[in-house]
């Protein structure tokens, strides 16, 4: 579901309830700027991210050495994922 920032401001309670069921995408001046999701979905996403990075750390440990180039790529990927 997509709503404008003005619609969200005027009907926040309604869209908070809707976010329990499906993501609510907020648009401002025709651009998608935010997404409202339920807290339970947020927790699942955080858990998935933690699992992803834990697996990456295990892979690195198994290989014995991650190296500075690989570390730089992982940091860059993490920064890009955080920015999205």
Give the structural class: alpha+beta
| Largest sheet, spatial ordering of strands | 1-2-3
Number of domains: 2
Order of helices and strands: EHHEEHH
Oligomer: single chain
Mind describing the biggest β-sheet?
3 strands, mixed
Give the integer mean of the pLDDT values.
91
Which short descriptors sum up this protein?
84 residues, alpha+beta, 2 domains, three-stranded mixed beta sheet, 4 helices, elongated
Description:
This protein is α+β, with helices and mostly antiparallel strands and 84 residues long. It has two domains: 2-37; 40-83. The chain contains four helices and three strands. The chain has helices at residues 5-10, 12-19, 39-63, 68-83, and strands at 2-4, 24-28, 31-36. A three-stranded mixed sheet has the order 1-2-3. The mean pLDDT is 91.
